[in-house]
Amino acid sequence: MSQEFQTQSPVKTAVLSFQHMFAMFGATVLVPILCKMSVSVALLAAGLGTIIFYFLTSKKVPVFLGSSFAFMPPLMSIMAGTTIGTEQWNTQMGKASVALVVAGLIYVVFSLIIKGVGVERVRKLFPPIVVGPVIIVIGMILAPKMFYNNIIGPSVWFDVPVWKEWTAAGITAVSIIAINAYAKPKSFLKIIPILLGFVIGYLYSLSIGLVNFDSADWSKIIIFQDMSKTFGFYGSLSLDWAAILSIAPIAIVTFMEHLGDINANSAICNKDFMVDPGVHKTVLGDGVATMVSGALGGPANTTYGENTAVLAITKNYNPKNIFYAACMAVFFGCFTIFGTAISTIPSAVIGGASIVLFGMISASGLRTLVAGKVDFTKSKNLIVVSVILSIGLGLGAMSLAGDITGDSLYKIIISISGEPIELSPLAIATVAGIFLNLIIPEQKED
Q: For helices 87-117 and 250-269, what crossing angle results, to 10°?
C-alpha cells in the first residue's frame, strides 16, 4: 500500500473518488441514451467493470472504465426505433448483448496473445498511421447519425418546432465550448464542461417546453423493482451473426485505443503499466468488464480519457480512489430514479453535446497522428491513411443513407447460411488499414 494512501484523509479520498465518478458520468450516460439502452445498467456496468479491472490489474492501474463510443454506430443501428421494455427492444437487446460478450471475449484472446508473443510485437500492428485515421472515422460516422437522429429527426417525426430543436442544441454546444475555453486550467469546472452543458441545455429546454415528462416512470426507485423491463431481454438472447459481425470487430479498434490510454496513463503516473502489471492484464480486465457489461445489457466498456485528465490535474494517482469511484457508480446505478431523470433529457440537448463530443473524438485521431510524428511525405503513410478514411467515411455515408431510406442496397451485406449480414464500415476500414500497413514496404531514403 502506498504511503500516500495511508496518510490520505477519508474526506479527501471521498472528494477525489466522487470527482472521478463525476468526470466519467456525462460521457458514460450519453452512450446508452443514444443507443436506446438503460442508463442505470450502464452506470452499474461501468462501476462493476472498473472494480473487475482494479483487481485483475493487481490494484496497480488508476483507470476507470466507462461506456465506449466506438461501439455506438452498430449499436445505434441495431437498437434504432426501440423502447426499453418492449418486445422489440428485448429482441434487439438480446442480439446486442451476445455480440458484446463476444467482443469482450476477443479482448481476452488478445490478452493471451500478448502474454505469449510480447507487447512490442503486437504494438507494431497498430502504429499511429492506423490508429489515428480509425479514430477520426469513429467521430465522423457518428456525427451525421447524431444530426439526423437527435436534431433534425424529432422535428419531422414528432412535429416539434424546428427552432426549439436547433436552439436547444446550439445553446448546449456553445455552453460546453465556452466553459471548456474560459474555465481556469486547474479548476473543477475544467473537467465537467459536458455535464454543465447538459444542465444549461436542459434548463433552457425546460423553459421553452421541450422537456417531456409523460413517459417518465417515477414509481420505480431501485433497478431490481422491475426486472421484466430492465432484464426482460434474457428471454430473447440469440446468436445473431449480423449483430456479431457488426459489433465484435470493433474490439480491434478499442484495443488500439486501450494501448494508447495505458501509454498515456503510464506517462502521467510516471510508471510503465505496460510492463507492471503488464498490458496483457489491462487488456484482460477491459475484456472481462465488457463481457460483464454486455451480459447485463449495458454498452461495451473502455478506458476513459476523462479520468486520465483528472489524474493529470490532481497529481493524485492512487488506484484506490478509482476503486471507490467505481463503488459510487454501482450505488447510483442501482437507483433507477437517476436513470429516469436522465431519460427526460431532450434529444436536441444530447445532439448539442454530441456536436462537441464526436468532433473531439475525430480531433483526438488527428492528435494521434501528430503525436506519432507521422511523415506524410512518405507514400505509404498517405496511402494507408487515405484508404482508411475513404472506406470508413464512404461506407459510413452509405450505411446512413440505408438507415434513412430503408434500402439495403446502400449497405455492405454478405450472406451466411442464407442470412443477410451487414458489415461495419469501421471494422472494414480498420482491417484494410492493418493489412495495407503490413504489406506496403517502407519508403527507402535516397
A: 60
Q: How many CA atoms lie within 13 A of 241 on its CB side?
A: 9
The CA-CA-CA angle for residues 284, 287, 288, to 5°, reads 85
Q: What b/e readout covers 348-370, taking b as 16+ CB neighbours within 10 angstroms?
A: bbbbbbbbbbbebbbebbeebbe
φ, ψ of residue 204 in degrees (nearest 5): -65, -45
Helices (H), 248-335: 250-269, 279-296, 305-314, 319-333
Q: Determine the 3-state secondary structure of 427 from DSSP.
A: helix
Q: Which domain range does residue 179 map to?
A: 9-439
Please state the pTM of the whole predicted model.
0.72
Cα distance between residue 91 and residue 340, in whole Å: 22
C-alpha 149/C-alpha 355 separation (Å) is 13
- Asked whether the predicted pLDDT for residue 415 surpasses 60, the reply is no
Is 80 exceeded by the pLDDT of residue 9? no
Nearest to 106 by CA among 137, 71, 139: 71
The percent helix, strand, coil of the chain (3-state, each to 5) is 75, 5, 25
How confident is the model at residue 269, as a pLDDT? 81
Residue 387 one-letter amino acid:
V
- List the alpha helices (DSSP H) in 118-192: 119-123, 128-146, 153-157, 162-182
Structural domain includes residue 300: yes
Examine residue 251 and state whether it is found in any structural domain, yes or no. yes
Distances (CA, A) of 216 to 34, 37, 234, 337, 345: 17, 15, 23, 9, 11
Total of domains in the chain = 1
Residue 277: inside a domain:
yes
* Range with top average pLDDT, 113-122, 246-255, 323-332, 394-403: 323-332
* pLDDT above 60 for 409: no
In a domain, 444, yes or no: no
What pLDDT is attached to residue 148?
Answer: 73
| Nearest Cα residue to 178 out of 356, 309, 48 | 356
